Amino acid sequence: MTLKLGLPKGSLQDATFKLFANAGWDFRVDSRSYQPVVDDPEISALLIRPQEIPRYIEDGIIDAGLTGKDWIEDNAADVHEICELTYSKATRNAIRVVLAAPNGTEIEGPKDLAGKRIATEYVRLTERYFAQHNVPDVKVEFSWGACEVKVPALADAIVVNTETGSSLRAHNLKIVDTLLTSTTRFIANHSAWADPVKRAKIEDMSLLLLGALNADALVGLKMNVSTDSLNEVVAQLPALKRPTVSPLFGDAGFAVEIIIEEKTARDLIPRLKRAGAEGIVEYPLNKVIY
Question: Which of 225, 240, 247, 274 is spaced 20 to 30 Å from 92 by Cα?
Fold first, then answer.
């Protein structure tokens, strides 16, 4: 069995390779190649623009892949969605596909763009959006990226994706409306999903990818605690987490271990030290399977 896997080329590539590495797959690719090598003989991978992955999966050219919900919607692709993977190139936040126009204009909604020109990579999604709002005579033009520089000279407004909004602000643009919120999705074609062997491989991959994402914001803490300090140390730990407490050899106290959110560790560790914990070790996690 060989699973044909499509991985997003471009801004998500490095984050995707890191996610797979934490899940247990080591993908490597030459800068001029579109065919990564991976340490799994059951996987054959291709780097493809995420805009095209839904179409290739729907057509059965590749079995499964990772792409954004925005591109699934833009292609209106009939695919099987396996899981949501909430990561992006800069943060773990979802991206938004937005309608944006220059600051200082009277464009406040889709109806203000009747008869106007829109530049976007999301041509089909944008056309459906204006049709749903009954806005006539909108000219939607495909743009090869860099839409922000096209207004107001070449277009009246744009439809783009944004993660932080910094590029829009830098180009003096305002968000008029949000068409959809998008995250990365692991998808497969219906034929591959109906194949028991390929489905098992895809489900195993989904489990480990989700485990890697779960672990991304977590760390483990372990420490030694004397018998006299145990209750005070445990009282400092997050109320909803149950620590593992094990006796040390020779009745020398206890070993305490817990998994917490990484952002809480910097405040928690000093409190644990003051409460009597010793030998505190913070360590990263690769996978957490719920």
Answer: 240
Tens digits of residue pLDDT in 157-187: 999 999 888 899 999 999 999 999 999 999 9
Query: CA angle 61-62-63, nearest 5°?
Result: 125
**Residues forming beta bridges with residue 256, ordered by sequence position:** 223, 245
pTM, full prediction: 0.86
Q: Please provide residue 168's backbone torsions phi and psi, each rounded to the nearest 5 degrees.
A: -65, -45
129 and 178 in contact (C-beta within 8 Å)?
A: no
Tell me the sheet residues that pair with 79. none
- Backbone φ/ψ region at 9: left (φ over 0), alpha (ψ -120 to 50), beta: beta
Element containing residue 212 per DSSP (H, E):
helix 196-216
Which of 89, 225, 220, 104 lies closest to 161 in space, CA to CA? 89
Domains of the chain (ranges, CATH numbers): 3-92+184-215 (3.40.190.10), 95-181 (3.40.190.10), 218-284 (3.30.70.120)
Tokens of 81: 């969605």
Whose tokens are 């203000």? That residue is 112
Quick check: 263 and 186 in contact, CB under 8 A? no
Collapsing DSSP states into helix, strand and coil, what is residue 139?
A: strand
